């Protein structure tokens, strides 16, 4: 039985709150430290945070005193989750890693670093060994593992079976993204109620690049060779609360003979971590819906604790080869939940 | 000064109401007949219709007695607008046309008929002459002109400049459609609030075919040669009230050298009906937004009385050639307003 | 350990679906019969129903063949839940009761019948004995118990402590009601998105009368003496999915000296069924929020499985005596969940 | 023909933008100065403001250079509208008034000042003479007139006829307020989508007091005697864009014999400024809806340019005397539009 003491960086923000919610009652991890900005430091968590989750703030966390995010406050902690804002994550995460503290980060700052795994346990678990090429400490005790952007998670997960069966040449995606993706207070109600905003700053660049690393091949010396396809993204904000829905078209390298072959790619895909029985792992990471009106953010983003990817309307495309819709819970599967699953796999494999 | 007596078929439905609203105070057309189903016939309009527009029901229309949609009730009418449901439009529109009554229809039933213009005045005004190949009456007095589906209007309008300058090979589009497109009561609030429904029955087929006719070339004997490109569509419902927003990627036949060439295609496009000064015509049918967050359905669908197409985020695409967002007011530009503009052009050209 | 076979009337509707969802895995009750209209009869449930819940349709129910709602189809069933539409409930519920089948009904039809309990287990559990005055069958095996309207549940629950401590003279309430209260498809998205509809047909009459029965005193011969106060209601529809929020002002018979006395009324109120440990009973039926912005439908309606009443902003009123907000999940606490709790109490007390 | 040069204070905020929109093409007033904070000063307006209105930013305003709000920048201006935030309005408005510049303010700061009119032209036009008791300048050229809070406008307007006919003893109101009332960015989408927030900081105090001044009697020396009734308010935020909807119950001093008497109070109420033909004045300031589902924010808040009050469901109340719904456009009638009408009346009466 694992029993690890953990800290959360950026604990008062929207991602930090989701970490706290998802970790309540976790069988392996116990929250012992909560880091936030100078403004919050010194206050008990329930006073420092404007709690926005729809469950009650767990009592076990409510009275923990929030500290700043320096290494000295996280001594004795086995590892930290980082929900830091990208404006401060580079410095803070490095300083903790250099102090020998492993970091499971949701921040974007180190995602494309060539020694840092951009990890989705069911998709590229072998990338974990990249940790060994990191040099934050001499003894290798301090390291960083990241999870991808909240659109890249459903995109990479849905592409994996097609990539393995057919190869991929190019991907065109329009992502319809929920307001929770912008944090709190995030998107103004005046901007989004009854509306769609056709641009999300900085998002499309991530969608163009992260999937190529996630699906990249691990080679000698733990280096990644990026996957060799192109992604073109249009990221828009829609008035949904949770769940990014992607309209995806894919050009394959080897054209499938029949739509059944495409469905088979999904059905025959093997979840490489199913043997481990990790606490947050969905029993079925990818679900293919047959009903034409599914998946829907409000109904299906929360399936399997928000950790299941939904694919719908998988069909032949007259221009590319296949088109489909993909849905994942952006703040669980695409953020805090994904990071927790990363930590569980790392713990299972003995890194924690 | 034109002064025409007009009727409206399907007058109590959502499209019929939009016709009434837009025709209030129209300088050329005066409503004289209102046709609806048997259930409504015999009642004054204000009792027959559940008025859902945000202006007061015009008094001039309020007391008109609703009739059934047979030809005898529309004698003495110069022409009718049809907002009929597709389940009844085939029979009714034919019977009126055969009785010598011109029909400007929003229904889909005759759109792909090879003798029926699928008309957008700024895009394919020459198609009007197809009327002459119709044979509903011997004297040619009864005929049908249609306007396209509410997604095909912004799609075809936005493609026209690129088609003329570069040629088009293929088009991939994800259309994010407002609830008003489904009529009233239409979409259940439980289905769409805080949600996206990734399928709209029958919609994608229209998007795959109608643009090819709209951009087709009029040849001998008033026959259309369909435009030679492919369209692949994903149509989803989003919680907006008015305004369909399209995420479009286009493969051109002649690749532009530079993004400026693409912008020039829009800027140098010439509106072929600007000379006529039609009452419902927008002064600028296509507006290219420079702000990355524009156009937005709630803010921009109503520009120029809901008759202006908005294009935004026009950019080079790494896979196709260009990508952009297109927005049009679905129940005005994409339905009743488009039909009224069709009638104005037909009147201007002497067909009415 | 109880082990009862149950049926659901109106199983394909929104309330019926909620029954199925809430009964999945219930320790005492197992679904054996599903009744619906002639149109659905003969089909397996998954084909008869348009499933709208956000969990997967339970497999155990999916293949049950739907029947009509006559008694012969429910032989061998221990009791039925009724989610019938009021247009058919009078006849069907009577016919089953006369056939000796106990009915736990969410329909309004028998709520104000003088022999039928209008039951909220924590509020008026003694009213159960009214069953004994029913005469559907000679042996008393067939009877009807109802739960109140979805606004009356939070209203009566919140009034109970004040009624007991101070007496009540009059109540003014504005109820802001979620769209799920109108069933499916229910409220049109065009009516409610970004809007408030200031009238809900038939709703206010129930709010004026049902609380007086719920808080009425059980007297000789199991007759209820209605509570002696007046209620004035304004019921409006707001764009929320689940959770009716009530703005309530109450004139008390004995004016409290201090706001603390009012808070004490809530705190010292004793839950009369806490001893029974019923599976669906909330551990804390009434929660008093201290944060001025709470309770909110989206965050708090689902607390304790949707069975907890939330009260917020309890304060002195300058005109009446006290004012507060009350919130309850309308389709769980105010409908299916309330009915299930009624059944659990009836089973515990030996009526089932 | 009046021709006045005007300035706008707080020009870049949500209220300031509404002033600009409503004043575009105004026959009497021309925008000559735009004041904002230090951060915006020196920039042309189109760069200083994040324009959120659904019309294009008027060209005439777009290039005006924004200045700070000191008197020197508004020399030569005939008067200013103030849309200043309350955190800065006290100082700035006083300094301009002392510099001899008349101020028509939407800010709350001077509303309850005993020499400042809290003006609704149709309700208390005689209060204008309070200006004469102000002492900002010796010559009386600098003065302040305010318009009421956006809930108090529909409340006071709807109460006026009943106050005149029957007298009022007390008023209980639940106001369901649109997000635009909180400015921009204002309410977070995560707080309000599919939700109701049962508290709006500071709002209820204004509702308790402002109506008493608005309906107060002007006595000797231009002093107001406050109206002698009590108001108890519950202010909640609902997911509407524009239009505050109030659920109101009123105890009258003289009980009406019949509901017809109440309706007559509305019908026989005489608009005291109808003679003036002010550009922004609605032809019918108060409209009584007969349809039980009206008025609705999305459909009716914009009637008569957003300047008409809607009253619906006027009925006898079993506890107070009458109950009804009242609706007004909060950022037009309840803010910028109301201030403009104030200015028009003041100009008409020779104060400007």
Describe it for me?
Helices cover 28% and strands 20% of the residues of chain A. In chain A, helix 1 links the parallel strand 1 and strand 2. Chain A contains eleven helices and 13 strands. The first copy, chain A, folds into two domains: 158 residues, Rossmann fold, CATH 3.40.50.720; 179 residues, Dihydrodipicolinate Reductase, domain 2, CATH 3.30.360. The mean pLDDT of chain A is 97. In chain A, strands 9-6-10-13-12-11 form a six-stranded mixed β-sheet. In chain A, strands 2-1-3-4-5 form a five-stranded parallel β-sheet, with helices on both faces. In chain A, strands 7-8 form a two-stranded antiparallel ribbon. Chains A and B meet through strand 6, strand 9, strand 10 and helix 9 of A and strand 6, strand 9, strand 10 and helix 9 of B.
Strand content of chain A: 15-25%
Task: Using the 3D structure, state the CATH architecture of the largest domain in chain A.
Answer: 2-Layer Sandwich
- Number of H/I helices of chain A: 11
**N- and C-termini, Cα separation of chain A:** 13 Å
Please summarize the sheet with the most strands of chain A.
6 strands, mixed
User: What is the chain-wise order of helices and strands of chain A?
Assistant: EHEHHEHEEHEHHEEEEHEHHEEH
Oligomer classification? homotetramer
Task: Please name the two chains that share the biggest interface, counting residues whose Cβ lies under 8 Å from a Cβ on the partner chain.
Answer: A-B, 43 and 43 residues
Shape descriptor of chain A reads: globular
Give the C-alpha Rg of chain A: 20 Å
Stretches of chain A where pLDDT falls below 50 for ≥5 residues?
Answer: none
Q: Going by CATH, what is the homologous superfamily of the largest domain in chain A?
A: Dihydrodipicolinate Reductase, domain 2
Query: What class do helices, strands and sheet pairing of chain A give?
Result: alpha/beta
Tally of distinct domains of chain A: 2
Strand order of the largest sheet of chain A: 9-6-10-13-12-11
According to CATH, what is the topology of the largest domain in chain A? Dihydrodipicolinate Reductase, domain 2
Mean pLDDT of chain A: 97
Instruction: Give the number of DSSP strands of chain A.
Output: 13
State the name of the first-level CATH class of the largest domain in chain A: Alpha Beta
Fraction of residues in helix of chain A? 25-40%
């Amino acid at each position: 039985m694992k029993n690890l003491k953990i800290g959360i960086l950026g604990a008062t923000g929207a991602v930090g709150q989701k970490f706290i919610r998802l970790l309540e009652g976790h069988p392996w991890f116990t929250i012992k430290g909560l880091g936030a900005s100078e403004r919050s430091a010194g206050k008990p968590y329930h006073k420092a945070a404007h709690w926005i989750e729809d469950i009650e703030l767990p009592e076990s966390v409510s009275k923990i005193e929030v500290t700043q995010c320096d290494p000295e406050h996280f001594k004795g902690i086995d590892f930290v989750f980082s929900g830091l804002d990208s404006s401060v994550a580079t410095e803070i995460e490095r300083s903790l890693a250099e102090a020998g503290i492993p970091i499971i980060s949701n921040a974007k700052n180190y995602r494309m670093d060539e020694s840092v795994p951009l990890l989705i346990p069911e998709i590229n678990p072998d990338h974990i060994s990249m940790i060994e090429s990191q040099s934050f400490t001499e003894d290798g005790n301090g390291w960083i593992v990241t999870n991808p952007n909240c659109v890249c998670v459903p995109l990479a997960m849905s592409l994996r079976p097609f990539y393995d069966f057919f190869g991929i040449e190019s991907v065109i995606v329009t992502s319809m993204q929920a307001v929770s993706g912008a944090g709190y207070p995030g998107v103004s109600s005046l901007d989004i109620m009854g509306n769609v905003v056709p641009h999300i700053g900085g998002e499309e660049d991530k969608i163009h690049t992260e999937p190529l690393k996630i699906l990249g091949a691990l080679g000698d010396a733990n280096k990644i060779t990026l996957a060799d396809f192109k992604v073109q993204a249009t990221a828009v904000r829609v008035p949904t609360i949770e769940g990014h829905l992607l309209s995806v078209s894919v050009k394959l390298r080897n054209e499938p003979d029949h739509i059944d072959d495409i469905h088979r790619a999904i059905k025959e895909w093997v979840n490489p971590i199913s043997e481990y029985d990790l606490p947050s792992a969905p029993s079925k990471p990818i679900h293919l819906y047959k009903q034409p009106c599914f998946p829907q953010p409000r109904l299906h983003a929360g399936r399997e604790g928000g950790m299941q990817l939904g694919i719908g309307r998988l069909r032949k495309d007259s221009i590319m080869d296949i088109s489909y819709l993909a849905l994942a819970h952006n703040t669980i599967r695409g953020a805090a939940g994904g990071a927790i699953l990363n930590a569980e796999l790392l713990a299972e494999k003995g890194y924690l």
